[in-house]
Structure formats: structure tokens, C-alpha cells
Amino acid sequence: DVPKVPDCRGDSDGSRRGSLCDRLCAAINNVQGDLGDMGCHLHCPHVPPAVSTLSCCQQHSEEVCENCVVKTTLTAENAVEANKLSNNYKFGFKKWKSHVTARPWEDRSEIVKELYSDLNVIRGSGGSALTCGNVFYLLIFGWWLSLLYVLVAAVMFITIMGSPYGRLCWHLAGYFLWPFGKVIQKVEVRQHRESPGGAWAAGAGESSALLGGPTPHRWRPRCWAGTGYWHRAGTAAWLCLGYPVLALAHGLVCVTAWLLIVLIPVAKLSARATSRVLLLPPQRVLIRRLRMTENTEGEVILCCYRAANPYYYKYAVDGINVFAVNLLPLVLVTLVLGYVDSHNHLTGSAVKFTLALLSIMPLSYYIGMAIASISAQSNFAVGAVVNATFGSITELTFYVTALIKGSREGNRCYAEVVKSALTGTLVGCVLFVPGLCMVIGGIRHQEQRFNSRSAGVSSALLFLSVGGEVGTGVAPGLGVPPGWVPTPCPVPAGVFAPTLFSKVYGKLVCGECHNVTQNPLGHYLCHNCHFDLMDNNGTLYYSHVQPLVYTVSILLPAAYLIGLFFTLKTHTHIYDIHISDCHMPGHHHSAVVHWSRWRALVILLLSTLCMSACADLATEHISPILTNSTISQYFIGVTVLAMVPELPEIVNGIQFALQNNLSLSIEIGNCIAVQVCMLQIPILVLFTIFYPTNFTLVFSDLHVYASMFSVVLMNYIFMDGKCDYFQGTVLVMVYFILLAVYFFAPSPSGC
Predict the structure, then answer these.
(1) How close are the terminal C-alpha atoms of the chain, in Å?
(2) Is pLDDT above 70 for 468?
(3) What CATH code is assigned to 315-467+530-580+608-725?
(4) Is the distance from CB of 37 to CB of 583 less than 8 angstroms?
(5) Which intervals of the chain form a coiled coil (predicted)?
């Protein structure tokens, strides 16, 4: 039975409140969740008053402490966000860190509020203006922007009619040279008639709305006051000669500062200057240095204290992280350059391949955000279908396009690269992703605990996919006598069962053999050995290996579905997740989603389409790299092609680990690895039925043993449900050792 979540308003049961079990659980599982308040609640059973608290814990310590590790209570602002958090703990659902709804403004920290400010807030104390970021602004933008304002001011003075704008540009030159600690304010000008037929002029006794006192005469030219300001000739001169040049310069500054991310305040400064300051009448713009002792009134347009803020990596636009926003134009550049310059007149294949691969990262982020948004706003059935359909779309798109291109060209190298990428994804998600999360999370937390029972489901499915069996294997260059008969040795099965079968019953064919003893019955040294499955017109392959491949491709997805039914239907208590808002009183906000279901669906389809185009470009331009590169094709497949599409998932795992939520960090890697073995590989096999390719479910010995060792090591590390940075370091080091093996390995046959 699942224990109930305690009432946050208090607990009158003295024995429960003073229980040693409660204190032990709170000390062990003080876990920080997505909203900084993900905790663990533990309850001792009700006992008679005669039974002491200590005896309660002695009787139920093992059962209670196990439940303590498993049981988790999450807090959320609304039902949609609560559904997203709950989906993170469901097997087969994409784990997503970012919010799918807008967080209430009052719940945000002062640091985050400052990120989203419009640079029009005057703080009581801005601190010293002499900072590294401000000096960097002066050296990169300030000096030439100020010089440009001086030149525009000179041009406007020459026109005579634009002299008020010339004076404005002159003072703005000083402002943009060093805008920190200065204020630009919109001044309300009072009008009165000097004579029955006179023009409107500013009152002589008008006071500054910013700092008090008389407004300087230079800001109130008599000939420019009045409602007919925009129709005068000086305005036309300004809009034709001055404003376009300055708007272009500020646009360049805005784009550059935005791409640098930490300089986003400079981008906001330039955008606001272009859209507000430069379009105001000169007499309504007031520039003063702000003093702490003076009061401010009226509308403040610009007030900047810092040019750089390192926390802007948290900045999001409509729920999308700023990094993904900045990488989105790269997708457009890649598509235009790839399909317009098809003959490589502008750039080479290496550049286009790199751009196409980098474009996959933001598209993966958008696909993940769309899946999380749809799942959080839909029922369980819809969420499960969307996750199963589009959860592996990033990798499958690349694999399918590569196999199609290899089939058209008759090149087996593409199939070998796909196998390397599959193995690299499996090994990287089993070793590198959880290991890196353990190391980074272990820097902040001495020891991290996770739900070993939920992690055991994924581990069991992985072990089923690559579980130990017996088979044979001969490494190239091994001495082989003429009458050599294969002998059993440890080889994994599961998804590698056809590989095992081919090594047991296949015919060993070697490219070149030399007798090292000069004796016909002596030892032979053979090179480029492999097992031939097409002997006797392919009888072995078509009659035995191919049916086995199809059987495995059906059984593995069936095992995946059983795992879904086990974790989401019959044994949901494994996760024991409870959503509550009791720790955040007064939070009953209505959900304001970033993306509605229809918008998320459209973005999901568009991102998938762009992903297909980028994958097509990557496979189109990878051939010269594979042919001319001195690096093994194995290494290219297991590193670049395997891990680059998984970078958004790695970032999510690191964020979870920093919040002491290692369970989700581990589940991210495990779920991807399970999908590789139980969904992606069977889908590729079934794809070959409708579109014949060179892809066969027979892997090299290097792939088989690397996968087997990785899964065994992962199961050993995750056995006790706790870890530290040392265990994470072991996983990462083993991963790098395997990469070194792939780096020095010879290229696969056919490449």
C-alpha cells in the first residue's frame, strides 16, 4: 500500500513527528527537485502509545528506509507542469528539464527577474560601474558607436534643419561610450502660447521629471515644440540621413551581443535605443547621470548598470533556451547552403557536413520540447504514442538516410557507419551520460542516491538486449592452423544473437595467410578475416540467419512493451511519485503554456522535416570524410555521429544531477540505450524488408564486446542505489578507453 502524503499544515501525531525514521529519511533524502522543493516523506506505521518510537524504527527500519529511497513528492505550480514532472519518472517518456508553462513572476528569484527586465528599472545601489564586462563593452562596442554618433551629429548640424537632432546625437555619443550609471528619460513638455498667433514653446519654469530643477534650454528648442513636429523638414532629414545609419549600427551590435549571450543586456540596450530613444522628439529626451540621493519621476527609458551577466545562460524566449534560439538560424544557413550550392562552389563537403551535424542539436531540442508539451497537455495514451513515435526520430532519420544512400551507391561503408553510431549511442548513454552526471553532481553533493528499483527495469531490459551467451570469435592477425575448428568463448546475445549465430556457423574467410613455421601443418598468420554468410548461394544467411534476425526484431519490441506495461500499469509503485503544491502556499495559478498542443504538433512536424533535410545533407557530404580521413570510421561513428544528437539530453541530465536528482540523470541514458536496442535496431531491420539495404544485424567483435562490457559495468555500479563522483569518474574513464580503442582500430571492411 502506498502511504499517503502528509498534510503540510502540520501533523498532530507526536510519535510520527518525533520519529527517528522521519529524521533519518529527511537526512538521507533531502532532494532538490525541479522547483527546488522535491522531497521525500517517510512514515512509520501507527503503533500503540506503549510502543516507543525507537522500537518502531527497529521493527520497520529496513522496509521503511527502502520506501524512503523510492518515495518522492514533487511540487508544481499547475496541473500541466505536474503532469510533465510525473511523465519524467515514467519509463519510455522523454525526460525534460525545462518548464512547459510560464512560471509565476513572484516565484522567480531576483537574479532571474533581472534577466527579464527591460533596462528601465532604477535600483537603489548599482555598485561599481568599473567591471570586466563594462570594460569589454567599451573596447568592443562603445568607442566606435560613440564615434559614429559624433559623425551623425556633424551631418545633422550641416543640414541646419536637423540641428536639434545633432545636439541629441552629440549627447548620445557620450552616453553610448559609457552608458553605465546614466539614465535616459522621456520628458513631458508643457506647452503655452506666447501670443495669440505664436508657436507652442516649452515653459520656462518646467522642471526635469528625472532629477528636478529646470530643464536645460538645449533640450527645448522653441521652433521644434508642438504637435506638428513630425511634419517638419528636420524630421525628414533625420529619418533619411541619421536614423538609418544608427539603426543599422545598433542592429549589428544587437545581433552580436545576443549571440554572445552574456552580453544580452547590450542587445537590449541597442534594441531599446533604436525603437524608442531615436524615434522621440529631441526635446523629450533627457540624459543625466543618476545620483543615489536624487529622486526620479516620469518614464525611464534606459537605465543600464552592467553590460554582461553570466546568468543569461538561463534566459529563455517563449520557453526555449537562448542557446537553442541562437542555433536556429544555423539550420536555415545549412539548408540554403546545402541545397543551393550543391556543387560545392562556395564551401566544401567538410563544412557542409559539420553545419548539418550542428543543426541537428537545436532541432533535437525543439523536438524534445514539443514532445514534452504535448505529453503534459494530453492523457497517458496520447503521451505514450507521441513518445514512442517521435522519441527516436532524431537518430532514425539519420540512420535511414545513410542506409538509403549506401544502397543507391552500393557502398557497404554506410551500413558499417550506422552500426558504429548505434554502438556509440549505446555505449555513450550507458557510460558517459550517467558518469558525467555523477561527476558534476558529485562536486556539489558528497553522495547521491537514486531509485535502484526503477533503474533496475532499464538495466534488466539492457541486459536482455546484450545478455551473456557463448560463441566464437577470431581477431584479425591471430594464428590459425589449417584444420582450425571454432571453439566457444564469451559473446553476448539478445540484439547480437545473429552475430553469435554467424560466428558459430559461418565460414571463416581470410584475405591473406602466411605460414610462419614453414611447415604445412604449422601455424598460419592470417589477416582481414571475417565470417562469410553467403557461402553456397547464401543458404546459411537466407535460411537461418535472416529468419533469426526477423525473430529478434519482433521479440525485442515486444519486451519493450512488456516493460512499459510493467512500470506504467501493474507496478507503478516502483516510482511512487506524488505531485503536491503544499510546500508552496497560495500557488493555484492557471496554466499558461508556452506551446499549445496544436502549436507543439506543428513545431514537431516542422522540426522533423528539417531534421530529415539536415540528415540528408550530412549523409550526402560524409563520403569524402570517410574516404579521405586518416581516422578510423569506427571512431567517427561512435563519437560524432552518435553523441552530437544526444547533447540536449546530456544537458538535461547534468541539470538534474546538479539538483541532486540523479534518478532522472540515469534514466535519461538508460532510456536512450534501451530504445537503441529494442526500438531503433528492430525498426532499421524491418525497414530493410521494404527497402533493401546493406544493413544486416551482424556486428563486429569490437562493437559486441564494448556493448557487453558497458552494460555489465553499468549494472554493477547501479546495484546499491547510491554513487559519488569517484564511481562517475570510473564510468567516464572506461568510456574514454573504449574511444581510444576505436580510434586506433582499423577501418571496417568495405570502407
Answers:
(1) 58
(2) no
(3) 1.20.1420.30
(4) yes
(5) none
